[in-house]
Amino acid sequence: MPVSNIINESASSVIMPTPPLLAEAFSNGQIIAIVAIISGVLLIAVIIVSGLKFAQRRHELWHETVRVALEKGQPIPPNPDEPTQHDRIEENRNDIRSGLILIAIGVSLALFFVSIGAPQVRYVGAIPGFIGVALLIHPLYNTLFGSKPKNRPPAERPPQS
Questions:
Q1: At what angle do helices 126-145 and 85-115 cross, to 10 degrees?
Q2: I need a labelling partner for 121 at 20 to 30 A (CA). Which of 38, 60, 100, 153 fits?
Q3: What is the DSSP letter of 123?
Q4: Contact indicator for 59, 52 with CB cutoff of 8 Å
């Protein structure tokens, strides 16, 4: 008997196990959880990338506007991304409002935990409470020590040819 027949006969008698499919390795609940996690991560990535892309495009359009204005001898328009004095005042109002809300949440959490008979957990209310106190201090700190608005010199006109 030739050697090749012996090898073929012994190879055909060995049954190779088939690898399990991925769907067979997990239950339906596990597959749903994995797909949900991957989808959530992909959604967050798409939101971040598209936000960065739109910010870059807005920046490019502003530079194009500045270039055209300088070519025509016009002054440089204000940068829309740069905060104005009105924006700073609005930001301080929002900080004060958010600080008061967080302090109220902290106090209510502390009172809730004391009322249900868990006084050792009442300190959980200190977390949003202290964040609220920090948000109340922030506008005061900005008005006392914050940076002053920058006074930019007028734009120089390019040489006319």
A1: 160
A2: 100
A3: G
A4: no
Per the structure block, which two tokens stand in for 8? 């073929």
Spacing of C-alpha 44 from chain mean position: 8
Q: What is the DSSP letter of 157?
A: P
Cα distance between residue 112 and residue 103, in whole Å: 14
Phi and psi at residue 116, in whole multiples of 5°? -90, 0
The helix, strand and coil proportions of the chain, stated in percent and rounded to the nearest 5, come to 75, 0, 25
Element (H, E) at 66: helix 28-71
Helix (H, G, I), strand (E, B) or coil at 35: helix
The two three-digit tokens of residue 121, written as one number: 């957990």
Nearest of 149, 108, 148 to residue 125 by alpha carbon: 108
Q: Report the percentage of the chain scoring pLDDT > 70.
A: 74
- Could you tell me which residue, 27 or 130, shows the higher pLDDT? 130
Q: Where do the structural domains in the chain lie, given as residue ranges?
A: 22-82, 83-143
Please check the confidence at residue 47 and state whether its pLDDT lies above 90.
yes
Question: Phi and psi at residue 96, in whole multiples of 5°?
Answer: -65, -45
